[in-house]
Write a structure and sequence with these properties.
Number of helices of chain B: 16
Strand order of the largest sheet of chain A: 1-2
Strand order of the largest sheet of chain B: 1-2
Number of domains of chain A: 1
Shape of chain A: globular
Order of helices and strands of chain B: HHHHHEEHHHHEEEEEHHHHEHHH
Keywords (chain B): Cell membrane, Membrane, Transmembrane, Transmembrane helix
Number of strands of chain B: 8
Structural class of chain A: mainly alpha
Mean pLDDT of chain A: 86
Membrane topology (chain B): Multi-pass membrane protein
Oligomer: heterodimer
Helix content of chain A: over 70%
Strand content of chain A: under 5%
Main location (chain B): membrane
Organism (chain B): Streptomyces fulvorobeus
Protein name (chain B): Branched-chain amino acid ABC transporter permease
Chain lengths: ~300, ~375
Amino acid sequence: MTTFIELLLGGLSIGSVYALIALGFVVIFKATEVVNFAHASLLLAGGYVTAVLHDDIGFWPALGVGIAGAAVVGAGVEFFVMRRYRGSDHSVLAIVTIGVDIILVTELTRRMGTDVMALGDPWGDDVVTIGGVTLAETRIAAFLVAGLLITVFLLAFRFTSWGVSMRAAAENPQTAALMGIKLGRVSLSAWAVAGALAAVAALFLTVFPTPGLERATSLAALKAFPAAILGGLDSTTGALAGGLIVGVTESLATGYQSDLSFLGRGIGDLAPYLVMVIVLLVRPAGLFGTKELARV
Amino acid sequence: MSDTVETATAAPGTPPEKTPAPAGALERLRRPRTYLWLVGSVLLLAFPFYLDRFWLQAGLFAMAAAIGAIGINLLTGATGQLSMGHAFFLAVGAYSYCVLAGESSTENGHALTGLGLPTWLAAILAVLLAGVAGGVFSPIAGRLRGAYLGIATLALIFIGQHVLFNAGSLTGGFNGRPVPPLSVFGFTFDDTEVLVAAVPFQSSEKLWYVALLALLLSGLFARGVLRGRPGRALNAIRDHRIAAGVMGVPVARYRAGVFVLSSMYAGLAGVLLALVFQRTVPEYFGMILSLEYLAMIVIGGLGSVAGAVVGAAFVSLMPQVLTHYSDSLPLVSAPGTGGLAPGEASRYLYGAAVVAVVLFLPGGLTRLKKPGEKK
């Protein structure tokens, strides 16, 4: 039972990190209808900047620079690439983000080499034990920070004028533009926000118990894709739910690996995708996604 | 729809080839294109006599990739269904061939299952099996569109990798398994030397003609599909799914069908790649391979056979060219010497090429020469 609770809590914590990534993904999709396959590379960029700088300027400033850096990279991708596309086919734009991703990931992994980089977080490998249940401090921090950021984001999305213009642009771009909302600025800010959220996620994907920032981190970041999809690509609530589902599934499948040995080794990495496929079979638009209604 | 899509569908440059035969024969003699084709085919047929093994291997990779790229161009280019799972079907083709054609054996303590079928039969069955795998996925493929489909097919990659690493008796696990050489009517495409016009023919030289034939047939078939009724239906689905349905196109059937067809192309490409590699390893069939195929069709040109072939040549020959000339190129150097490794350099180049092509040449490289056509 203790194991189960530990796994569940650990899953919720890592799930909230996935939710953070998925949220950025969903925000870009809502604002621009583009599926951003370069998201994992934004995350890697943020993590890399933090990892390089933390020795010289301390952890917190380095984290700040990392977040800002990832936001700048995101905004840069929007400004220099996405905005230049004149066609209207969004699946072609999705492939463009793949091109961007190839360039960014190649550059970052070349710089990293085979190193495993520490991010210099203050939690180390301390653990907290409450009533027999042991949890790493990093996991608690991840859960709290992700929860806080998601709340702030959802509130901003709902109440600030930025959030209103974002939602208006998602609802109907033409009308929003006629009402004086600058669509370019909306999509630029969406990319920047997504980058910043991804950089925070990068921190929590690389702290204890994971060894640190390495090439494989972008694979972990990929799990935000099934999270975003199974929640529904155009739903912020969906991103949240999807992230938690993916996190818990992964954690439980990894934890009970020995009981699931007939499925082969490393089933934990696969479980999120299996859950996604099953959910999509039943609900093709994801759990909270709007079903497409088309007027002919 | 947008003007880029318009030019892709209408393809005004192509109809002259369909002009009636009597007038066409003379007409064709006057067009430079005919001679280009002629010279090209002679060169392709003559290459095994002159090129060394390195370039023949590179060419074989390019041809196998071209077949796979034609497949994904039918699906993603012509029908607009984004697929990230192409590598999975390549793997199905490659490994099915090994399992069907190989003999049961033990390697490094692994027991490998093999059915020992005649290799030509195994190759055909492997292609069919890839198609079946595509068909099994059709409940998903038929329901989802756009980004949802793209990410759902991403699941195939991870499922595929999991199976390849774990189903040891079929796939040989991490170390992969050897590929039995193809043999047709008693002629084996292996490394035993055969002298043809005083040139020793080894596996690459022999396989060259197999690959050439396979590429030709699959290219012609895809062209037939794209230019005929199914092709128009697929383009209609891409441009406006609902309108296509209203006009009487059985959308679901066509989408499932094109998914199966594209998996079969991938399966054929997988069989060829396996024959060229002579050993299949699971790592190769990962996500990067899928991304490469998407890059190919975007660079070459979405929705056409020529685009797929050009893109495949570009993406798969680039690392080889860079590797071969790494000494004389600035910036690029052999792996591990501190500079830019050829593999990385080529990834930069084709990543940048994808972005540049979409932004500046929406038709891809194959439409490069006709700027007047755009609007």
